[in-house]
Design brief:
Helix content: 10-25%
CATH superfamily: Alpha/Beta hydrolase fold, catalytic domain
Radius of gyration: 19 Å
CATH architecture: 3-Layer(aba) Sandwich
Largest sheet: 11 strands, mixed
CATH class: Alpha Beta
CATH topology: Rossmann fold
Length: 401
């Protein structure tokens, strides 16, 4: 299997802030861990501002070129050194903060405290289809795939691309981009991801996770979010970032010119960002949505939805925070919980992997729905799927053929 090596750079220690989203939210995070080397560059000419960008009315990008396949003869990099597992705890850590929460130019390895859910925010829900009948089969994503990737036998590992990142960029100079260092190799088209972190978190605090995802061919753009669940500014900023990166595909002289698969974008986020990802899922470019420990959310989704949470990530009524989202979904949806995981699980490193077992699950989902990786569907297809057994629990699907 082809492995990637990412460029090393210095980690800049920074403190960061959890800004209270609203009075009813509670903190329940774990330590955020920076893993793996990357190149971090600060854009020199983009001014940073706290004002949200104006929402573009359309992606403004032309039709993409015909699907292409990344040649498997790409020079094989050496195997990356696995990150050192970090000690994890169910004990919540309080954030110590300073500086502008909208800036993402510094990498932090200080404790990361995630945002919480609004107490009692969900209505009573009816459980969806519990797996076990043996007749649920995921359809092949033949109508949603663009370029294709070389196969992998380990979805928790790095993909075939070395990665780099750029801070202080985007529509208003406050976004961070994590992307393959070399774009468009052999005509490969990279799917864009608009990513939202938890309230007050910097994108750099989830860099270990995002670098792994980007190494599988994705161009990720995101910025810090300050509001609570269902804040319209969160939706506006996530859409603005997506529209801006899509526009770069048609911008002469841009690094991304003609190198993005603008018809197969992804909305993805953690906590408040996961809520926003569902809410903007009706954007015409978005092919699939991934909500990681998100809150109750609704959206007119155009593609399949992956919901991931933890058995300790619950609301006051004992339901998962994502249960109302699953109940309200009108599209193909897969939903499973990690046994013992709390709201901050995705921020920690478990078994040497940033984000633990949730990371390979979301990489498999993205590779299947965006790049047509048929082997990846073993994570969510069939009664014996990876997300159907320990350490996953209560797997559910709905609206599948």
């Amino acid at each position: 299997m082809t492995k990637s090596v990412r460029l090393r750079s210095s980690l800049l220690l920074a403190t960061w802030a959890l800004l209270p989203a609203c009075g009813s939210e509670r903190n329940s995070g774990e330590n955020g861990v920076q893993n793996g080397p990357s190149t971090v560059t600060t854009a020199p000419s983009s001014p940073a501002t706290s004002n949200p960008p104006a929402l573009p009315t359309s992606p403004g990008a032309p039709n993409t070129p015909a699907p292409t396949t990344l040649a498997p003869t790409t020079p094989a990099p050496t195997t990356p050194t696995p990150p050192t597992p970090a000690a994890t705890s169910d004990t919540n850590s309080d954030a110590v903060t300073s500086g502008d929460p909208g800036m993402g130019s510094q990498t932090s390895t200080s404790p990361a405290t995630s945002d919480g859910a609004e107490s009692g925010a969900s209505d009573e829900t009816t459980p969806g289809e519990t797996l076990g009948s043996g007749d649920v089969t995921a359809p092949a994503p033949s109508d949603t795939t663009g370029s294709m990737l070389p196969p992998t036998d380990d979805y928790s590992d790095f993909g075939p691309f070395e990665t780099t990142s750029l801070a202080n960029t985007g529509p208003d100079g406050t976004y961070t981009i994590v992307r393959p260092q070399m774009l468009g190799a052999d005509g490969f088209l990279h799917a864009p991801i608009t990513f939202g972190p938890g309230t007050g978190m910097q994108v750099s605090q989830m860099m270990g996770l995002l670098e792994r995802i980007a190494s599988h061919g994705f161009v990720i753009i995101g910025r810090a979010l300050e509001g609570g669940p269902r804040d319209p500014v969160t939706r506006m900023r996530m859409i603005a970032g997506l529209d801006w990166i899509i526009e770069q595909n048609a911008t002469a002289g841009s690094d991304f010119e003609g190198k993005l698969d603008v018809e197969h974008a992804v909305a993805m986020g953690y906590s408040v960002g996961g809520t926003g990802a569902v809410e903007i899922g009706g954007h015409e470019a978005i092919a699939t949505v991934v909500s990681i420990h998100g809150h109750q959310a609704q959206g007119e989704l155009r593609g399949p939805l992956l919901l991931m949470g933890g058995t300790e990530d619950v609301m006051s009524n004992g339901d998962s925070w994502l249960a109302p989202t699953f109940a309200g979904s009108q599209t193909q949806t897969s939903f499973s919980l990690v046994v013992g995981a709390d709201h901050g699980y995705i921020q920690g490193t478990h078994g040497g992997v940033p984000g633990g077992v949730e990371t390979p699950a979301m990489i498999a989902w993205l590779r299947y729905w965006i790049y047509g990786d048929e082997a990846a569907k073993r994570y969510f297809e069939g009664d014996d799927c990876v997300m159907c057994k320990d350490p996953w629990s209560n797997p559910q699907r709905k609206n599948w053929p």
